[in-house]
């Protein structure tokens, strides 16, 4: 078998594996997003993502709005469920620790700012939404 065919098969296998783990990364109809989030929020998210939104973007927003979500990361490989208030407090504590180390005044973030940061990290590929609707920080 040629190297090109082997490479193509590896790419296809990798794509299938990705799609199983992260099935929400498919196109989403704009009218569905407007219906679910309203025209203003849909427009705000389109500005963050700089492109048409995917189902994962919509599901992430709905998850964050619900106020409780699971995060999978190196500290919690099986996942940890957070409320938005708990997650926000954790982020603010990390910001305060960084500020103390740098002898600066700490910034205090609100929930809207944290949601935007999560969306920006999602856009950058630093966080993924799993098939089980958990945030995965690889």
SSE inventory with pairings:
Layout (H helix, E strand, L loop, with lengths): L2 H19 L8 H8 L1 H11 L5 H12 L1 E6 L2 E8 H18 L9 H14 L3 E2 L5 E2 L2
Parallel strand pairs: 1-4
Antiparallel strand pairs: 1-2, 3-4
Task: Considering the chains and any ligands shown, give keywords for the structure.
globular, 6 helices, 138 residues, 4 strands
Question: How would you describe this protein?
Answer:
The chain has helices spanning 3-21, 30-37, 39-49, 55-66, 84-101, 111-124, and strands at 68-73, 76-83, 128-129, 135-136. By secondary structure, the chain is α+β, with helices and mostly antiparallel strands. A hairpin with a 5-residue loop joins strand 3 (128-129) and strand 4.
Residue runs with pLDDT of under 50 for 5 or more positions: none
The helix content is 55-70%
Find the structural class using helix and strand composition.
Answer: alpha+beta
| Mean pLDDT metric | 91
What overall geometry do the principal axes of the alpha carbons give? Answer: globular
Radius of gyration: 18 Å
Q: Main sheet, how many strands, which sense, barrel?
A: 4 strands, mixed
Please tally the helical runs, counting DSSP H or I stretches of 4 or more residues. Answer: 6
Strand content range: 5-15%
Report the end-to-end length measured between terminal Cα atoms: 34 Å
**SSE sequence, one letter per element:** HHHHEEHHEE
Q: What order do the strands of the largest sheet run in, or round the barrel if closed?
A: 2-1-4-3
Q: What is the total tally of β strands?
A: 4
